[in-house]
Amino acid sequence: MLVATALAVLSIPFVEGSCIHESPLTNLRRSPQIAGRDVPVNNFSYIGVTGPLGWTGLSTANVNCSTANVQSPINIDQSIISLSTSNPQINIPNVGSAEFENLGTTVEVVINGTTTFEGKTYSLKQYHFHTPAEHLIDAQFYPMEAHFVHTALDGTYLVLAALFELSLNGTNAKFLDPLLSGPLQAIEKPGSSAYTGPLDFSDITKFFTTVPLFKYTGSLTTPPCTVGVTWLVAGTFLPVTPQAFLGFKSVLKFNARYVQNTPGQQNLIELAASQLPK
């Protein structure tokens, strides 16, 4: 099995706070924050009538969500989905600060960078998180997932995805820790933003350029569910401590789209609708 936990690849000790009877966020050590601007909140959700089953009804632009036969996330069945024969070349400059936003449906860090894969160069726009993870691997689910979203000049997308496993030795993936030292608490409210401290991307860059990556063509996992997205999903897991996971979960809530059909097969909403009694 190519999937293995990578606790030693991307981790540094995580410092716990002193309060143990309050919310997960109060247990994360605070640092001084610079308040950000108000940001727009998405009009979709992950539950009820504005959840994934109702996304097409929110806008005619979202028709792919219920009709396209190439959708994400998926169950990465290793007998069907192949490993990429190459890893991307990635350049994400370290920064002194970046904007961290709560869009109501996720939290994202706005950042610049470039990734070249199979001769094509993409610009990194942001990375964001899902709890639980959206992709499954061989029908197993995971607590959290990070997506590094890129676009090319021709409008196509590339997403680098990393799944997390709970760490039992008190370590987080290194790129998580600057978000846990105060910024996450500062953007608890949807529509809020804050500025992080210094961000070092050397370890996450090394991760995506060295680990096995599952490759498939899918879609954005949020409206408008744009198709033709190149997905590279890491076959090695990143560590997240239970406390850090609970901190993210308390802000993100449930924000995972349900698993879609195997790429190329009928959209599950369309399939279910066809089976309703006439």
UniProtKB/TrEMBL annotation:
Name used for this protein in its record: carbonic anhydrase
Annotated family: Belongs to the alpha-carbonic anhydrase family.
Keyword field: Lyase, Metal-binding, Signal, Zinc
PANTHER family according to UniProt: CARBONIC ANHYDRASE (PTHR18952:SF265)
Organism in which the protein naturally occurs: Laccaria bicolor (strain S238N-H82 / ATCC MYA-4686) (Bicoloured deceiver)
Pfam family, one: Carb_anhydrase
Domain Alpha-carbonic anhydrase: 42-278
Catalytic activity: hydrogencarbonate + H(+) = CO2 + H2O
